[in-house]
Amino acid sequence: MSYDQIDDLDADGRTQEELVAVGRRTMSKNFRQAPVVFVRGEGMYVWDKAGKRYLDFVGGIAVNGLGHSHPRVVDAVQRQVRQLMHVSNLYFNEPQVRISEALAARYEAAAGKPGLVYLCNSGTEATEAALKLVRRYATKTLGQPDRSNVVSFTQSFHGRTMFALAATGQPKYHEGYTPLVPGFSYAAFNDLESVSRLVDQNTCAVILEPIQAEGGIILPAPGFLADVARLCRERGALLILDEVQVGIGRTGTFFAFEQEGVVPDVITLAKSLGAGFPIGAMISTEEAARGFEPGAHGSTFGGNAVGCRAALAVMDVIEQDGLCDHVRRQGAWFLEALDGLKRFPVVSGARGRGFILGLGLNKPVAQEITLACLERGLLVNKLNDTSLRFLPPLIAQRAHMRAALETLTEVLEATA
Ligand SMILES: Cc1ncc(COP(=O)(O)O)c(C=O)c1O
């Protein structure tokens, strides 16, 4: 399908500029959008209202794991929409049962023990469920009312609801929202001593991202996650791994924790799980899952048939197309190629794993570079003033990476 064949759902003749102006006037001010309105996506590309094509290395912030409108997901969703969209959690629906079975099996294969799945609609909701579960498990199931504290990490990001926000160890996200949910303290990532100081008999859980994503794409030091897991075991705390951004194949294994020799008690997923359709999940061990009895937690839309059908298609494609191996191989190549951009004085180096990669800059020019790339038809993400982030769909091929590098090179040549 070419751009001209687009199904014009909004044929009122308004231009991109006009729509941007309406958006700026009528939409809540909590986002800082670039002045483009996207109207179509296919594979690695999106098109804006003016018909311009962009190569997408942002992937909806790790959501479009299979690229845009993957035919297998589109087909599955269309068929499910025609058949059944929603019935509530008063009943089962088939895709919900099947995706729970598939995720539980994946967890069991990786962790060596059975897992139970709670379905929701976003990463924040998965965090919220995980934190409620661990607090309830310790204080109610185990009957240890003082064991309600959670240890999180500075530079972490776990979401925006009040429980998830308290777990997020970045003061800038807390501003104006105090008092926060009590019971949180923050250790330093890759500093086991700081974790050890905080985890005690009142700690119900430690929560962390296997790779700190929003906080700067910070990889765990070898053995760090395993050491945290051991500390948790010794002190009777549960380990929650937030795989919302790095799960579902992004690091080259289905779960990021598989590369770390740890067995988390709870993991959270969202983003790529639905390939663009909102769905989140929390998987916990059978033991930790005892924290929730009927009525302890819930969600009207969680487990809705369409999101679950999308997730089933995603899991099938990842498996059948061997995308984890692909990400491992291509990610290593792209990391090295990005690191080669150090030949530009403004670039300090690349970091990351699989298809979550960052490029460090020696000057605060990330915004300028992001806009220059946009201008040239490449989507990259400014992580902070001195870092760019690349979260390409897992289907990205070498040719896409070469094209992205070419554009980046042009932009860096023009960057003082
Ligand atoms: C690690 C992590 N956890 C949780 C969240 C929150 O997910 P959502 O935005 O879907 O609520 C994010 C979002 O960026 C994330 O990166």
Outline the fold blueprint.
Blueprint: H1 16-26, E1 38-42, E2 45-48, E3 53-56, H2 59-62, H3 71-83, H4 94-111, E4 115-120, H5 123-141, E5 149-153, H6 162-167, H7 171-174, E6 184-187, H8 192-198, E7 203-208, H9 224-235, E8 238-242, E9 266-269, E10 280-285, H10 286-289, H11 305-320, H12 323-339, E11 347-353, E12 356-361, H13 366-375, E13 378-379, E14 381-384, E15 387-390, H14 398-414
Bound molecules: pyridoxal-5'-phosphate.
What key attributes describe this structure?
Aspartate Aminotransferase, domain 2; 2 domains; seven-stranded mixed sheet; four-stranded mixed sheet
Q: Can I get a quick summary?
A:
The protein has 416 residues and is α/β, with parallel strands linked by helices. The chain contains 14 helices and 15 strands.
Characterize the structure shown.
The strands form three sheets. This protein has a seven-stranded mixed β-sheet with strand order 4-10-9-8-7-5-6, sandwiched between helices. Helix 9 links the parallel strand 7 (203-208) and strand 8 (238-242). It is α/β, with parallel strands linked by helices and 416 residues long. The two termini are 40 Å apart. The longest helix is centred in the first third of the chain and has 19 residues, at 123-141. The mean pLDDT is 97. The chain contains 14 helices and 15 strands. It has two domains: 3-63 and 322-414, Aspartate Aminotransferase, domain 1, CATH 3.90.1150; 75-320, Aspartate Aminotransferase, domain 2, CATH 3.40.640. Helix 3 (71-83) packs antiparallel against helix 11 (305-320) and helix 4 (94-111) crosses helix 11. Helices cover 38% and strands 17% of the residues. Bound molecules: pyridoxal-5'-phosphate (PLP). Pyridoxal-5'-phosphate is lined by residues 122-124, 127, 157-159, 209, 213-214, 242, 244-245, 270.
